[in-house]
Amino acid sequence: MTFKCGQKPGTGRYVCINCGEDLNLDDDTDPLPPCAKCEKCEFEKG
Ligand SMILES: [Zn+2]
Q1: Centre of ligand 1 from the C-alpha of residue 5, in Å
Q2: Pairing mode, if any, of strands 2-4 and 12-16?
Q3: What is the distance in A from the centroid of ligand 1 to the CA of 13?
Q4: If you write DSSP's letter for every residue of 1-46 in order, what string do you get?
């Protein structure tokens, strides 16, 4: 299952499908930002 930036999939760790960079959402109301490294917008749950 993948998530796009702007979605609010909830707290947890997400990994960029393109480059493997990970990020953490620490609030259920936070939208996924674009990847800090490659600016792609597709993640999977880490
Ligand atoms: Zn990336």
Answers
A1: 11
A2: unpaired
A3: 14
A4: -EEEBTB---SEEEEETTT--EEEE-STTPPPPPPTTT---EEEE-
Q: Which domain holds residue 6?
A: 2-45
* Count of domains forming the chain: 1
Over the stretch 18-30, which tens digit does the pLDDT of each residue have?
A: 999 999 999 999 9
- pTM over 0.85? The answer is yes
Ligand 1 center to 43 CA (angstroms): 8
